[in-house]
Write a structure and sequence with these properties.
Low-confidence stretches: none
Strand order of the largest sheet: 2-1-5-6-7
Distance between the termini: 35 Å
CATH architecture: 3-Layer(aba) Sandwich
CATH class: Alpha Beta
Helix content: 40-55%
Length: 268
C-alpha cells in the first residue's frame, strides 16, 4: 500500500512538473463576454455529487462578485457521455427554468430570457475522451454540442475532468483531449483535472475522491467549483470566506491550487 501511494505521488509530481511540455496549449484564454449570469452544467454525476458543483460555485460568485446574479441549472444523467444528451432540447422555450417558487411557496413564472443560458458547461463521461472506442464520439459530439449551444445564442465551455485516483496517468491525455476540443470549437476549457493533479502533488494526504476512487469528495467538489470560478469568471478565489464546511486552512489551499492551475494553464 505504501509503495502504491509513493508511486501515485511520484506520478502526480511528474505530471505537474511536465504539464507545460505534454499538453496542448489553449487558444481561448478567457470567457468571451461579460461574466455569465446564467449557467447550465450538462454532464453526469461528477457534477451532482456532494449536492452539486452549483451549491459551491453560487456562494463563491455571490461573495467574490458582491452579489452579482447567477442562475444555475444542472442537467445531468448518471454515467452519461456526450452522446447521451439532447442539448438542443435543453434550450427549448418554456421548459427548463420556466418557473420557481417564492418564499410563500407560490409559483413564479420566470421572465423569458434569450439566450436561456449565457453559457453551457459541458463534460463527457470520465474516460470517454481518451477511451479507444469512445474518443471519436467525444470529438464528434464536442463539435455537435458546441454548434448547438452557439446556435442558441449561448457560449460553450468544456469542463476538463480529473484522472481516477488509481490511474493518475489519465491526467495528461484528458488535458490534451479537452484542450484540443476547446481549440477546435473556439471554447474555453476549465482545467479541473490539472487542479486535482496539482493538489495531490502538494497535499497527497488530502482526499479529493469518494471511496470509489472516481467521484469527488467534498474537497474535490470544492476544488472543482473554485477552478470554475477562477477560469470562467476570471477572478481569484483566494481569500473567499465561503468554505463549504471545510476548514479555513483547507479551503485556502484548494483556492490557491485552483488559482495557480488556471494561471499556469492559460499562461504557461
Amino acid at each position: 500500500m505504501k509503495l502504491y501511494k509513493l508511486l501515485s505521488l511520484a506520478t502526480c509530481l511528474f505530471l505537474v512538473q511536465h504539464l507545460g511540455y505534454a499538453q496542448e496549449k489553449p487558444v481561448v484564454k478567457s470567457y468571451s463576454k461579460e461574466a455569465p449570469k446564467s449557467l447550465a452544467f450538462i454532464g453526469n454525476s461528477f457534477f451532482y455529487f456532494n449536492n452539486g458543483i452549483i451549491s459551491n460555485l453560487g456562494p463563491m460568485v455571490a461573495e467574490g462578485m458582491k452579489g452579482a446574479p447567477l442562475r444555475q441549472s444542472m442537467i445531468t444523467i448518471s454515467g452519461s457521455g456526450f452522446d447521451w444528451h439532447d442539448v438542443e432540447s435543453y434550450f427549448r422555450p418554456n421548459a427548463i427554468g420556466k418557473y420557481s417558487f417564492d418564499a410563500q411557496n407560490n409559483v413564479v413564472i420566470n421572465p423569458v430570457s434569450q439566450p436561456l443560458f449565457d453559457a453551457a458547461v459541458l463534460m463527457d463521461c470520465s474516460q470517454c475522451p481518451i477511451h479507444p472506442q469512445m474518443k471519436s464520439v467525444f470529438t464528434e459530439y464536442a463539435k455537435k454540442h458546441s454548434d448547438t449551444v452557439k446556435r442558441n445564442g449561448s457560449v460553450p465551455v468544456f469542463f476538463m475532468s480529473w484522472a481516477y485516483k488509481d490511474k493518475p496517468d489519465m491526467t495528461i491525455p484528458l488535458a490534451d483531449a479537452y484542450t484540443k476540443a476547446g481549440n477546435e470549437n473556439g471554447a474555453l476549457v476549465i482545467p479541473v483535472g490539472l487542479a486535482f493533479a496539482k493538489s495531490i502533488a502538494i497535499k497527497p494526504d488530502l482526499e479529493l475522491y469518494a471511496a470509489d476512487k472516481r467521484h469527488p469528495s467534498a474537497a474535490g467538489t470544492y476544488l472543482s467549483a473554485a477552478t470554475t470560478y477562477a477560469a470562467l469568471f476570471n477572478r481569484s478565489p483566494v481569500g473567499l470566506k465561503y468554505s463549504a464546511g471545510l476548514s479555513p486552512e483547507l479551503a485556502l489551499h484548494l483556492q490557491q491550487v485552483a488559482n495557480d492551475t488556471v494561471k499556469a494553464y492559460f499562461n504557461p
